[in-house]
Write a sequence for this structure.
């Protein structure tokens, strides 16, 4: 590809590659899109809708993608026996991954098991019956990657790759991507070619701190997952791939991936590598 644009947003590095340089208008539209999504869904911004609900706002105007994201959360929660839960934000904060990223570790606690009765949503409103912190980390970045590549379509009809540090979507020419080893980032456990689709990854060596703590929690206990080290998923869009990378950390994840026709790879903490029957990855282990 001919042009590369790198910038930092929502706490991570973004790389966008296109055939030609993007005009200033395209870059400004992308930044506005990301900032708007962040102002709606970030639990790290005191001015976000999520933070308002956590402080007890009760009801806020629903972001445009509310129904899609929370309906997917229902499906993830059901498939994993409650291990995935959009009200896991306070559980993450209890371990130090709070709004200030203090990394001050407290007592682990489970997310509300009754989240589907606490949290109500329509296309117009998002409501909590009691204060809690929404965290859409299971699929939010993937959704934002999809929105970004859709936005850029107004300025370029050629090849585009949007990579938000592990959540990647492509349009046009195929690209070959390494699957980073979670215990040795200088190595890959395999490679995969993606074209006009998305590849998302999640690993416990990213956003890790303290004595073996990381960002992938079992919502039923508030404790980090200990059996899976990394996951990868390929789907037509990044929100779906991102959701499956989260589901694969738990029992029920492979079954949900099969139901959604998503191909995947995961590496367990004992070094074993598992993959879906039609997985297109070339694995080295």
């Amino acid at each position: 590809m001919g042009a590369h644009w790198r910038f930092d947003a929502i706490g991570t590095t973004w790389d966008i590659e296109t055939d030609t340089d993007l005009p200033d208008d395209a870059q400004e539209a992308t930044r506005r899109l990301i900032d708007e999504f962040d102002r709606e869904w970030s639990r790290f911004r005191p001015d976000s809708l999520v933070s308002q609900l956590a402080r007890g706002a009760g009801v806020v105007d629903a972001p445009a993608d509310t129904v899609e994201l929370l309906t997917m959360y229902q499906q993830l929660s059901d498939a994993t026996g409650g291990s995935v839960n959009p009200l896991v934000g306070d559980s993450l904060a209890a371990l130090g991954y709070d709004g200030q990223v203090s990394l001050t570790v407290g007592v682990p606690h489970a997310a509300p098991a009754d989240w589907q009765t606490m949290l109500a949503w329509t296309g117009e409103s998002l409501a909590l019956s009691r204060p809690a912190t929404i965290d859409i980390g299971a699929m939010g970045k993937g959704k934002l990657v999809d929105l970004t590549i859709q936005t850029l379509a107004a300025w370029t009809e050629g090849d585009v790759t949007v990579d938000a540090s592990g959540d990647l979507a492509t349009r046009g020419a195929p690209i070959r991507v390494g699957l980073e080893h979670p215990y040795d980032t200088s190595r890959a456990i395999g490679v995969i070619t993606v074209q006009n689709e998305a590849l998302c990854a999640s690993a416990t060596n990213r956003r890790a701190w303290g004595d073996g703590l990381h960002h992938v929690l079992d919502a039923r206990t508030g404790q980090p997952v200990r059996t899976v080290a990394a996951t990868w998923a390929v789907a037509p869009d990044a929100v779906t791939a991102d959701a499956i990378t989260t589901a694969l950390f738990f029992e029920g994840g492979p079954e949900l991936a099969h139901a959604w026709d998503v191909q995947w790879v995961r590496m367990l903490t004992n070094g074993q590598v598992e993959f879906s029957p039609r997985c297109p990855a070339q694995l080295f282990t």
